[in-house]
Amino acid sequence: MKKLPFICLTVLLFNSNIFAQDEPNPITTAAPFLLIAPDARAGGMADIGVATSPDANSQHYNPSKYVFSESQWQIGLNYTPWLRNLTNDVSLTSLFVSNRINERSAFGASLTYFSLGSIDLTDDSGISLGSENPNEFAIDGSYSLRLSDYFSMAVALRYIHSDLAINVDNSDIQTVNTFAVDIAGYYQGEEKNYGSFNGRWRGGFNISNIGPKVQMVVGGDENFIPTNLKLGGGFDFILDNVNTITANLEFNKLLVPTPPIVDNATGEIIAGKDDNVNFAKGMIQSFYDAPGGFSEELEEIAYGIGAEYMYDKTFAVRAGYFHESPNKGNRQFFSVGAGFRFRSTTLDLSYLINTSDVNNPLESTLRFSLAINLGDVYEYF
Question: Is 191 left (phi over 0), alpha (psi -120 to 50) or beta?
Fold first, then answer.
């Protein structure tokens, strides 16, 4: 049964919440595909995007950036192969559309589809029972409003569908349908002179996937969806009319309770707090419930550093580094990327270099994105 072990592992990760005190204590959620960076521009800068300049795929990172877009319409199409070292039919595909309604407001919409490929089913005698295609997808829309010359906010509503169920005996996995909300803000400062160069500050935040818990397994525990806080800033070094270098720093933290340390014999909590709470309390509790105290809370903050060199808005080179604690997932990698603009069309590509002893699903994978800018061009400051 092709890729069935991978499906089973995914379900186990969703529902694992008991760890020995001396072992890593990662936070797992339902529908983790919602956190995958969909595009190659951000992919070239270690998946950074909450405070970078607006582009077609801003809906995923910070929809409030759309109101500062230079083009009236933006369309982004992205395709990311997944687990290419193991299989060739698992992938993430996304489509983004945004529109600057006027100088102070904009809307965006997107579709993200995560396919786990085709799974061939057989009985005990090896006779074919057909095939299944487990998948997950999200559809969302956002509205952003420019509250001042330099600051905007946005809200987004997301419908999430997760269908990992397969038609086999004794399968308790069920299809999940739920909704979530994002709240985001973005600051883009005025271009100022700093002596030998001009510069501009940027900043942003996004609390994404705020929504109720879901039940992935019939009769099982409810699981949190990946409510996540992104917070970041950046600075544009505008060297002259054609050369710009941007440096960015971004922090990420799951707003999901940390699993407590539990006595396997009695079921009593040894350290940490009970994570059987609703999603609203879980968001608040996520800041102070780690069994290891403040030091473990700090481990739950992942960070990324990224830079982009842009020449005449036609060619870009990018690089970045992402770090996550070994006890919280151990994702650590460098990334490189490039972008090419031909009139209204932009092609981006990126490549990931894993630096962790844990395999990364994007190892040995070249990612591509296509963006189209249409309509009026807006200039700021």
Answer: beta
